[in-house]
């Protein structure tokens, strides 16, 4: 176990929450509200542009990071590592983390800053990366990692599939080396299948498909759903990854105090909990308040668990996230 401690967390969701009923009016769409609330579990979400806020990814990260720093009682200048985990960056380049470093530290500083992009599994990859860098680099005392999502900025008008699900938000962790050894990072399990790259994604704007007038006219910009995702994908994958992760680190499923899965579908999470023979109460779920926030949803759920007192120091927590492409990541942590 690496001697890594989560010092504090911070969350940011832009504007007042938007109910399903209000979303229909704001987006000018109709959708099955009963399914979104009952099966998916989403009742409210935050979307910056529907509240008239000129905020984007770097703004969300900055706010969440400032909240985490405040909760930790730290100065931004004490950070030696800044990682932003997202597939909805501020720009193609420079990295969002570099922009955030400039906002937090106000200029040149001895700090490593970069983005991690693995679709909605980005935060689990960033957490693993930050923990290992921090544990082996004596020059870094504090690391800031933020999962952030701004997918609504890429949704085209009238998309009645995407708007009810995707939402804006960010959550930050501040990590440090644990002095007394009560907290720690146990390890990870990752899985990738790049043959599934052409199911859903944002394909315009990179080197393969620059944004041109022709691309805009053909409506190939923004979030595209090209093929239906396998309906049983997460129900099949998550128990398999959980089993491999726990076996790798000689841990029993009953020893895990909290399971935090990608907050994409409440009914799927409940099926997975049944599959691994764990009580529903161990699953943190916040999609009712925040919608689906991609790489931000796992740290947002953790933040809410800590804030409510449900997650306590010494608890074992399992993070599990999956995203388009396909990418799946998991972490085993002692808080």
Task: Give a written overview of the molecule.
The protein is of the alpha/beta class and 335 residues long. It is 31% helix and 23% strand. It is built from ten helices and 13 strands. The strands form four sheets. The chain has a five-stranded mixed sheet, with helices on both faces. The chain has a four-stranded mixed sheet with strand order 8-13-12-11, sandwiched between helices. Strands 2-3 form a two-stranded antiparallel ribbon. A hairpin with a 3-residue loop joins strand 12 and strand 13. Helix 3 packs across helix 4 and helix 7 crosses helix 8. It is globular, with a radius of gyration of 19 Å.
- Which sheet architecture does the biggest sheet show? 5 strands, mixed
Q: Mean pLDDT, as a whole number?
A: 96
Number of strands: 13
The succession of helices and strands, N to C, reads EEHHEHEHEHEEEEHEHEHHHEE
Counting helices, strands and paired strands, the structural category is alpha/beta
Computed over alpha carbons, the radius of gyration is: 19 Å
Q: What's the shape?
A: globular
Indicate the percent of residues in helices. Answer: 25-40%
- Biggest sheet strand order reads 1-7-6-4-5
User: What separation lies between the terminal Cα atoms?
Assistant: 12 Å
């Amino acid at each position: 176990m690496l001697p890594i401690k989560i010092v504090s967390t911070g969350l940011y969701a832009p504007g007042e929450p938007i109910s399903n009923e209000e979303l229909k009016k704001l987006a000018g769409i109709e959708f099955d509200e009963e399914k979104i609330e009952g099966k998916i579990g989403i009742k409210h979400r935050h979307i910056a542009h529907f509240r008239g806020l000129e905020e984007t990814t770097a703004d969300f990260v900055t706010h969440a990071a400032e909240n985490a720093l405040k909760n930790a009682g730290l100065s931004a200048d004490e950070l030696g590592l800044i990682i932003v985990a997202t597939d909805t960056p501020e720009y193609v380049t420079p990295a969002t983390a570099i922009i955030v470093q400039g906002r937090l530290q106000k200029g040149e500083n001895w700090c490593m800053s970069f983005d991690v992009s693995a679709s909605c599994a980005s935060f689990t990859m960033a957490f693993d990366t930050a923990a290992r860098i921090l544990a082996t680099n004596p020059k870094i005392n504090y690391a800031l990692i933020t999962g952030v999502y701004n997918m609504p900025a890429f949704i085209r008008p009238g998309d009645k599939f995407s708007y009810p699900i995707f939402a804006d938000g960010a959550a930050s962790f501040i990590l440090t080396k644990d002095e007394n050894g009560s907290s720690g990072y146990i390890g990870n399990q990752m899985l990738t299948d790049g043959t599934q790259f052409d199911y859903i994604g944002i394909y315009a704007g990179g080197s393969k498909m620059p944004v041109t007038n022709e691309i805009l006219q053909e409506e190939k910009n923004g979030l595209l759903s090209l093929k239906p995702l396998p309906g049983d994908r997460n129900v099949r994958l998550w128990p398999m990854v959980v089993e491999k992760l726990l076996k790798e680190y000689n841990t029993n499923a009953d020893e895990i105090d909290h399971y935090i899965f990608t907050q994409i579908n409440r009914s799927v999470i409940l099926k997975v909990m049944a599959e691994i023979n764990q009580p529903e109460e161990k699953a943190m779920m916040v999609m009712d308040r925040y919608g689906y926030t991609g790489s931000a949803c796992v740290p947002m759920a953790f933040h809410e668990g800590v804030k409510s007192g449900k997650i306590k120091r010494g608890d074992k927590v399992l993070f599990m996230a999956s995203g388009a492409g396909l990418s799946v990541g998991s972490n085993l942590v002692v808080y």
